[in-house]
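Q: What structure does this chain adopt?
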Amino acid sequence: MPKQNQNIKAHVVAVNMGYGHQRAAHPLQEIAYRNSIIDANTYAGIPAKDKAVWEDSRKAYEFISRFKKVPLVGQVAFDLFDKFQAIPAFYPKRDLSAPSIQVRSFYKLIKRKKWGKHLIDKLAKKPLPIVTTFFMTAFMAEIWDYPGEIYCLGTDTDLSRAWAPLRPKESRIKYFAPNYRAEARLKMYGIKAQNLFVTGFPLPDKLVGGKKEKAVKKNLGKRLFRLDPKKVYIKRYHESICKHIDKCNAPKAAKQPLTLTFAVGGAGAQRELGIEIVTSLKQKIEQHEIRVNLIAGTHNDVNKYFRKEIAALGLNRELGKYISVIYEKKKKDYFLAFDKALMQTDILWTKPSELSFYTALGLPIIMSSPIGSQEKFNQKWLKTIGSGIDQENPKYTSQWLFDWLESGWFAEAAMQGFVEASTSGVENIKKVLAHKEQEVHKIKKILQY
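A:
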């Protein structure tokens, strides 16, 4: 058994499908064997037959996400698709361990096509614990008798039945739950209590700053001043603020302007919303009252779209200064660029995806329309802890955004996110892997919503 958590190593396995599963794995690179995160659907040497199955799944997901925008039929098609992966109502509490049609089909597909066997056999040569951010690879590991421990990390605040195996009460898959609601849900699905660990969602240490949260507290102190220009919240709760972020990080004047970051989803959806926001904020941008980051991710078509529309708005002279487009060809480079942008971000505008957990960094979140059942639950969670708000009409962003700013609400939301959500995900996961479960830092028990 390793004596120190930093010596822990595991096979960290994600899947290259959207951003969610890879973003969750990104902060775990420090524990990844050979410092390498494995993408189950694109790793070197993957058999063509396995890659084809993965590719069909990815294309179907991205097609449905985009097709949703087609008038009338798009929404109907998406609703039917979402129904198969929907999360059932939490109450009344009941036994939900019976496998869904979706889970049964997963297992049949894995066994019939020997899907994932090549990957699991390859990892079995060095039987370290597997930590995967996607349920399918956890199922594969158990089906193909992986000799090491199998851990699966939930990537939303609530989880569908698809996350639990065919026979949950007999399964040896262990789960890292990002919050207590996810833990309670997995218990309903039949997962044994001893196989559940509430760890919080893993966040990049560069943004957290270790156990003492030095980076978070320093950035939050600076952010609060920009989020509360009239000091409505700061004056009222100054003592409490200093207690939570340390007196040395108390809000003080900052030179840079307010920075808003808008993140497009993994399938490139909602790109038009980003330009609506910029259009409304054009005068504020030109007057250098606000800086806007448009996150194109790894989608060059979104990158080109943003740049074309910025030019059409006559804002090219502000490009790279008061308006930036963040685009990288590779996911790894994108995540690093995104982390860097967040260090200077005051407000995050995004759909309530896995980025909901980033509110723990002291980021207030403006939520665009959720896509899918799990995002609706993330939306509820953000509202429950008081750090997220639904977007108003984007055409009038320049009005309502600054009204909320002057009221001090964004500063309050930033503190709520930091206080109520967890930044301890990586450390807690390392403790469980080291079999030091009793040392896992207890996160806030936000269960009811």
